[in-house]
Design goal:
single chain, 438 residues, alpha+beta, Cytochrome Bc1 Complex, Chain A, domain 1, 2 domains, six-stranded mixed β-sheet, five-stranded mixed β-sheet, 16 helices, globular, disordered N terminus, Metalloenz_LuxS/M16, metalloprotease, Peptidase_M16, signal, zinc
Length: 438
């Protein structure tokens, strides 16, 4: 009975994913270079206004890291027309919600309002772009906010994993530095440096505006023009990041964390950026290895052999290089080398044998489920549209990405595993408890 129910559920999912409504959108550019994407969906009386800026942790002086993340906070301080602290009061007072986030590649702001507040959302984002107040009071306030965030996230148990990976996997590319930056860099920065950073990266021609939801397209176009046309474009941002040399022999490293008692092992590979087809194949390989409790590594190392307390793999998406990483915490007296040997055994199987047809269909079902979920909300659609335009160069990936995954064959999975996931192409990091003398 359970098998029949599972089969029926999988069948329904496939039908739903196959017939899921195409996400329709309209694009245009303002004279100042701001790219605008509109998506109309009148099924619910909500609207999202969002702006994604082409600036992230990798941008800027390497002696002033963390500026993009800092600005994620700073640009809520206020503007010439919004008093300090009022930005975050106006939105909930009008029935809305908001958030922002920063990656190594971009910064994203959004507000979700009842659809009759569309104009308010556009005004807020135009204010943020046109004339924010960047002063010493705001800088000092947000400096403390960022430090507290670092304490909560990065100074928690295993919170330094990403920094350990970045520092050891990248030697010259700015991905080597943590997205949040180094606190001493923020402490040393001057107000003039913060203003210069804003002037360089936060222009309309370095951003995309997405308006999605219960909108009238003609009216929305007019409102966008009314609020954003007066913003002047800025000089084009020119990037020329240094390229990493390929890894041709295993690099062994150690990292220490004073907040842990149990060590961990990380095997990490530098792989192609997320716009490449190989990155999509590696997504599938990662899911096959540890996507859920029924995945091969979880079943083997956690459930059956009980060698690991926790195990996870991920193909961390970035624009210039992805990070394919495997992470495990051993159980009992299991050594880190034993864990890594068992992981390698499964990777070698993927390299030398085709995965089973059953496992392949399971992967397709998982990615179809992800596709449906990603397009199930206005917020998800808006972020996908912005990301696909700004970072991947093809807005219509919101409709095509699932076909890319469906077109990946078992043979391709085997070939890509061979191409990128050999021990001589990785960094092995022993993530260890920090002792008093270390």
């Amino acid at each position: 009975m359970k098998k029949s129910l599972f089969t029926l559920a999988a069948f329904v999912l496939v039908i739903f994913a196959t017939t899921a409504q195409e996400v329709k959108f309209e694009e245009f550019d303002l004279d100042n270079g701001l790219h605008v994407i509109l998506h109309q969906d009148n099924t619910a009386p909500v609207v999202i206004t969002s702006v994604m800026y082409n600036v992230g942790g990798k941008d800027g002086d390497r002696k002033r890291t963390g500026f993009a993340h800092f600005f994620e906070h700073l640009l809520f301080e206020g503007t010439e027309n919004i008093e300090r602290g009022e930005f975050m009061k106006i939105i909930p007072a009008n029935g809305g919600t908001f958030n922002a986030n920063t990656s190594q590649d971009r910064t994203y702001y959004y507000e979700i309002f009842p659809s009759n507040k569309l104009e308010l959302g556009l005004w807020l984002e135009s204010e943020r772009m046109l004339h924010p107040v960047i002063d010493q009071i705001g800088v000092d306030t947000q400096n403390e906010v960022v430090k507290e965030e670092k304490r909560q996230r990065y100074d928690s148990p295993y919170g330094g994993l990403f920094q350990a990976i970045g520092t050891n996997l990248f030697k010259v590319h700015p991905y080597k530095d943590p997205n949040i930056g180094y606190m001493e860099h923020l402490d040393a920065a001057t107000l003039e440096e913060f203003n210069a950073y804003f002037d360089k990266y936060y222009g309309p021609n370095n951003a995309v505006l997405v308006v999605a939801g219960d909108i009238d397209v003609v009216q929305t176009k007019k409102l966008v023009g009314d609020y954003f046309n007066e913003i002047k474009s800025k000089p084009e941002v020119v990037r020329n990041f240094p390229k990493e040399e390929p890894i041709t022999e295993t690099i062994k490293a150690k990292a220490y964390d004073k907040n842990i008692q149990i060590p961990a092992i990380i095997a990490t590979y530098r792989t192609p950026g997320f716009a490449s087809r190989d990155a999509s194949v590696l997504d599938m390989i990662s899911t096959y290895l540890s996507g859920g409790k029924s995945s091969v590594l979880y079943k083997k190392l956690v459930d059956e052999q009980k060698l690991a307390l926790q195990l996870q793999s991920g193909n961390i998406p970035q624009m210039d290089y992805n990070i394919f990483a495997l992470f495990a915490i051993p159980q009992g007296d299991t050594s880190l080398d034993t864990i890594l040997d068992e992981i390698d055994e499964e990777i070698v199987k993927v390299q030398n044998e085709l995965i089973s047809e059953r496992d392949y269909q399971k992967l397709i079902n998982q990615f179809e489920n992800q596709f449906v979920n990603a397009n199930a909300s206005i917020a998800g659609i808006a972020e996908s549209l912005a990301t696909n335009y700004l970072l991947k160069g093809d807005v219509n990936l919101i409709n095509k990405q699932i076909d890319i995954y469906r077109s990946i064959t078992r043979e391709e999975i085997q070939a890509v595993a061979k191409k990128y996931l050999s021990p001589n192409q990785r960094v092995e990091i022993e993530y260890l408890p920090k002792k008093d003398n270390e």
